[in-house]
Design goal:
This protein is an alpha/beta fold and 249 residues long. It has nine helices and seven strands. It has a single domain (3-242), classed as Rossmann fold (3-Layer(aba) Sandwich), CATH 3.40.50. It is globular and about 55 Å long.
Length: 249
């Protein structure tokens, strides 16, 4: 019986991925910055472990608690929706601490056991923003593009040891609290400097008016497919809008 550790499993893609792997008979380590056992079913094959990917001591403790794992899914992330001029550098650093450095830190923590065992898969959840030119996402896209490049090189480094690294690129999903956190309850007028407001409103309208969106289940199923893929594919778009962007690219 194999074991997967998933970061950011309290809601959205992470929670759905935890449920999917559990339904397939896997042991699941569902990590959360603030542990909540009530968001997942009780099971002898499912454990909730505290993990803030920006805290080195927390990463060490979480992996010690988890024990040997077969797959790491780096799903934890924070959003950022605004024009770059109106984004404080403190927020930029906060986004990168989780979306980029947090992914690198958890990956580095798991690699020794994967390398020594000669097997293991790292799946880094990025975003479809890496597939196209999307407005209001400069900081977020930069943090995710960094992980795309990181994973591509990492895959080459790990291949001699039988270890794999891949990315899953979810499309736009409006049903997760991630979308809510992107604005933190603020209106678009509050998020962007006034000179950008007319353009930003049109850009947001075009985005929310698209004809297809991604579901949480699309991402969970794509993570599962990435973990089991043996073709050497590196990037896996998740959701119909992401697939369409990937095909266009």
């Amino acid at each position: 019986m194999k074991t997967v550790l998933i970061t950011g499993a309290s809601s959205g893609y992470g929670r759905e991925t935890a449920l999917y792997f559990h339904s397939q008979g896997w042991n699941v380590i569902a990590t959360m910055r603030t542990p909540r056992a009530d968001v997942l079913p009780e099971s002898g094959r499912l454990r909730v472990v505290e993990l803030d990917v920006t805290k080195p001591e927390g990463i060490t403790a979480a992996f010690e608690a988890a024990g040997p794992i077969d797959v790491l899914v780096n799903n934890a992330g924070v959003p950022s929706v605004s024009v770059f001029e109106g984004t404080p550098m403190a927020r930029v650093r906060e986004v990168f601490e989780t979306n980029t450095f947090g992914v690198m830190a958890t990956t580095q923590a798991v690699l020794p056991q994967f390398r020594e065992r000669g097997s293991g898969v790292v799946v880094n959840v990025t975003s479809s923003v890496v597939l196209g030119h999307m407005p209001l996402s400069a900081v977020y896209k930069a943090s995710k593009m960094a992980i795309e490049g990181f994973t591509a090189s990492l895959a080459l480094e790990l291949a001699p040891f039988g270890v794999q690294a891949k990315t899953v690129e979810p499309g736009a999903c409006l049903t997760t609290d991630f979308a809510v956190k992107a604005t933190n309850g603020a209106s678009l007028d509050e998020l962007v400097p006034a000179p950008y407001a007319p353009w930003a409103k049109k850009a947001m309208g075009d985005f929310t008016g698209q004809d297809v969106f991604t579901k949480e289940s699309d991402v969970a199923e794509t993570v599962w497919r990435a973990v089991h893929d043996t073709t050497g594919q590196l990037r896996f778009p998740a959701g119909p809008d992401a697939v369409r962007l990937a095909q266009a690219k």
